[in-house]
Amino acid sequence: MRIRFGLLIASIVCILPTAPVHAVSLRNHDAFIGYSRLGSDAFYPNVGGLNGWEGALHIHVAPFLGVEGDVAHYGLGADAAIPRTTTILVGPRVSVKALGINLFVHGMVGGEHSANSDGGVHISQGAFAYDAGGGVDLPILPFFAWRFSGDYIGAPTLSPSGGTKARFNTGLVFRF
Fold first, then answer.
1. What is the C-alpha to C-alpha distance for residues 73 and 89, in angstroms, rounded to an integer?
2. Domain boundaries, the chain
3. Least buried of 69, 74, 110, 148, by fewest C-beta within 10 Å?
4. Between the CA of residue 156 and those of 1, 38, 42, 147, 165, what are the distances in Å?
5. For the chain, what is the largest distance between any 2 Cα atoms, rounded to a whole number of angstroms?
6. pLDDT in tens, 140-165
7. What digits encode the pLDDT tens for the residues 16-53?
8. How far apart are CA 55 and CA 107, in angstroms?
9. Residue of 44, 16, 121, 34 whose CA lies nearest to 73
10. How far apart are CA 61 and CA 38, in angstroms?
11. Burial, 160: exposed, middle or buried (Cβ in 10 Å; 0-12, 13-18, 19+)?
């Protein structure tokens, strides 16, 4: 897991400097924090849909194109037998904005780590994870919007074939 996390950080460091300096200005960037719902059996069998939070940062690097980083944690309020799952993902995002409404699609890769502290089957492992999806940001104030998004998320080596590999996110966006 440490090697994968190191590779993820190294790829972020390599991607950001390739953007032209004039394109990375303080415009069209955004930060998101909100509620996230993970589908049933998304990463492990016999684990119902999990509630959690998600935070994301989008840096605009060219017209319509940006780099997005995403961190989410699931399992809030669950008992000790239910795994707590954390995902860290990064990847490109394509956005189209008109009249303050921002439509976007993204594809991200990274890692997932799950652990539980009780139950019949002990889990403490991580794996490669991927995510593809999109959403809409609806303006509510000059620097704020409300996001609705949906994603297809999974981990090829962990996700059971019958799982619901979906997540839904909603929350506040700060535009800068």
1. 12
2. 2-175
3. 148
4. 15, 16, 10, 28, 11
5. 55
6. 998 999 999 999 998 888 777 778 89
7. 444 444 444 446 899 999 999 999 888 877 788 899 99
8. 16
9. 34
10. 29
11. middle
User: Which tokens hold the place of 163?
Assistant: 């799982």
Read off the pTM. 0.80
Residue 52 corresponds to which tokens in the numbers above? 């959690």
Which parts of 66-110 fold into alpha helices (H)?
Answer: none
Strand runs (DSSP E) across 7-143, as ranges?
A: 30-38, 50-62, 65-74, 84-98, 101-115, 124-141
Hey, what are 49's tokens?
A: 């849909």
Q: Is 24 helix (H, G, I), strand (E, B) or coil?
A: coil
Quote the DSSP letter at residue 83. P
